[in-house]
């Protein structure tokens, strides 16, 4: 098995930008900002609503922390799930036995089971964001799970 926990600085260097899933949904925030500006400058009675709508995405983009959860390449994926932010899990596609998305009350989990019997998990906030990539790179390996109540 080639998959292993490594230091982030030891990740293979690539020339292209790797697709990633981050904590902040940047595109949604930008769409809300555009909608807010449209409401503010559209000569309507919704100017106050536009100003209120503008506050949340601006606050989220510039004040709340952001980090990468998972990155994808043609050969592997990188899960930044370690408590030590200087470490990550490099997982090669051929080492994946199965994966699943578990819904929990406070945070959802994306779990990858490996050929050596170990598993890796990372908090995730949208199954839709991860499932498309996983079906592309590790097709037909999903284990369907339900919601975990009280977890």
Task: Describe it.
- The chain is an alpha+beta fold and 151 residues long.
- 28% of the residues lie in helices and 32% in strands.
- It contains three helices and ten strands; from the N terminus they run E-E-H-H-E-E-E-E-E-E-H-E-E.
- The protein has helices at 26-40, 47-62, 127-137; strands at residues 4-7, 20-22, 68-72, 76-79, 87-92, 96-104, 108-114, 119-124, 142-143, 147-148.
- The strands form two sheets. The protein has a five-stranded antiparallel β-sheet with strand order 1-5-4-3-2, covered by helices on one side. Strands 6, 7, 8, 9 and 10 form a five-stranded mixed β-sheet that branches.
- Strand 7 (108-114) and strand 8 (119-124) form a beta hairpin.
Structural class: alpha+beta
The number of distinct helices, counting runs of at least 4 residues, comes to 3
For the largest sheet, list the strands in their spatial order. Answer: 1-5-4-3-2
Shape: elongated
Note the main attributes of this structure.
151 residues; 28% helix; alpha+beta; 5-stranded mixed sheet; 5-stranded antiparallel sheet
Structure summary:
The protein is α+β, with helices and mostly antiparallel strands and 151 residues long. It is 28% helix and 32% strand.
Give the arrangement of secondary structure elements:
Blueprint: E1 4-7, E2 20-22, H1 26-40, H2 47-62, E3 68-72, E4 76-79, E5 87-92, E6 96-104, E7 108-114, E8 119-124, H3 127-137, E9 142-143, E10 147-148
Parallel strand pairs: 6-9, 6-10
Antiparallel strand pairs: 1-5, 2-3, 3-4, 4-5, 6-7, 7-8
